[in-house]
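Recall from the previous lesson that a structure prediction takes nothing but the amino acid sequence as input. Here we apply that procedure to C2 domain-containing protein from Aureococcus anophagefferens. The sequence below is the only information supplied.
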Amino acid sequence: PIEIRSLHKEGSHTAQGQVHMWLEIRPEREALREPRTVLEAPEKREFEVRVICWKTKDVPYESGDYYAEFQIGDSKKQCTDIHWRCRSGRASWNWRLKFPVELPLASPELGRLNVQLWDKDIIKWNDIIGQSQLDLYRWLLKAYRENRAWLKMTYKDQKRHRVYHRGAIAISVEILPKEDAENRPAGHGIAEPNQNPTLPP
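The prediction returns the following tokens.
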């Protein structure tokens, strides 16, 4: 029969995967004749996650100066440019963000794409409009190629213990092995080379 065991990092209660194995019980003398197999960690590979932030819809404010902020795991946060004086709740950026990622990840939590929609304020602090989270972990495991989706933005009011719908943001995510990313270059934002895909101004 096949045995299934969870794999744990030392000091952690969270499973890091499973091992499926065939367990064979043999006499010690017979078993010692065969060399032991050393289990090694999977080889690390570098990837690039490309996120394109397209636009928003259904943002409840009549006007604002909107930008979106992105972060994968504990990577450095990256932002779109600012859509100044947006009066319809439909901000538009067509903005590319690039994140280097080394796979496999140390934990599934590091595979989450955090997205926040902000209203820029010049005089005082910026106001968060809403946020969303996209779990890329399974996509990263499969080196998922491309997907475009609307992410619903929500705002959690801590005082009232309520969650409000705050519109949606359209993004694309592409996960490339480093060598493919080098063969298909793309600039940050709308900088050159503006390709793979080409983003309208």
